[in-house]
Amino acid sequence: MKALGKNSITVILDSILRVISWALWATLGLLFLFGIPALIIDSYKDLSWVANAPPAALVWPFAIMFAVFVLATQIIIHRLRKIFATLIEGDPFVPENASHMRTIWIVLAGFEVLNMLFSSGTLMAKKLFGDAFLQLQGEFHINWSLWLAVIVLIVLTEIFREGAKLRAEQKLTI
């Protein structure tokens, strides 16, 4: 199977990204339709007989972090699909692809920094408040593979930028 064009692996990847995007939106919708209202109701009326849910002080930050994760993922998926559209057309070295890739690595890096801050905050909350936050687990760590992927994306962004520049110069050459 070829990598570029109408009947390529890129079309399959684009379809997979579309399904993932819809699944993430649906999951986020379920969180806001059912999860958050349940927290609000639980804060006014004790519903502990329904389920042994964690306290709202734990759920709210994780719900917000999940929403940020979904939004960051949607930005990445949207930009990847735009890149894939140029691959399907058989024209990958367009200036917009470098811009899309730059956005992808910035979102990845930003989300990982936010994730590291969030992990640090949960650990600090566990140390400060002790018993109330015993359900928190985890430790501060650096995701080296993600940072390596960001560096690779930075390099690929420059390759696409140079490729687009060379292609534009070639079009001007007679």
Blueprint of the fold:
Elements: H1 9-44, H2 56-88, H3 95-129, H4 144-172
Provide key terms for this protein.
4 helices; 174 residues; 76% helix; elongated; mainly alpha
Task: Quickly describe the structure.
The chain has four helices and no strands. It is an all-alpha fold and 174 residues long. It starts with 8 loop residues before the first helix and ends with a helix.
What does this structure look like?
The chain is mainly α. It has one domain. Helices cover 76% and strands 0% of the residues. It is built from 4 helices and no strands. α1 runs antiparallel to α2. The chain is elongated. The mean pLDDT is 80.
| Terminal residue distance | 34 Å
Q: Which word captures the global form?
A: elongated
- The string of secondary-structure elements, in order, is HHHH
Classify the beta-strand content into a percent band: under 5%
Whole-number mean pLDDT:
80
| Major sheet size, sense and barrel closure | none
Query: How many E-type strands?
Result: 0
Gyration radius from CA atoms, angstroms: 22 Å
Number of helices: 4
List low-pLDDT spans. none
